[in-house]
Amino acid sequence: MLLKGDGKGSFTAVKPQVSGIVIKGAVRDMKEIKAGNNKLLIVAKNNDKTEVLSFK
Fold this sequence. Notes:
single chain, 5 strands, three-stranded antiparallel sheet, mainly beta
């Protein structure tokens, strides 16, 4: 489940069917970066491999 922040300290749950994001495991941190014309989401997980997701 994705928790989408409103920038004011509140979060709304977004189901995977809506967000299109499925990450298994305990996520420690996520960062969005731009690589050329692509956006990448770097996902750091506790005691696991880092995942890189590409999206538009």
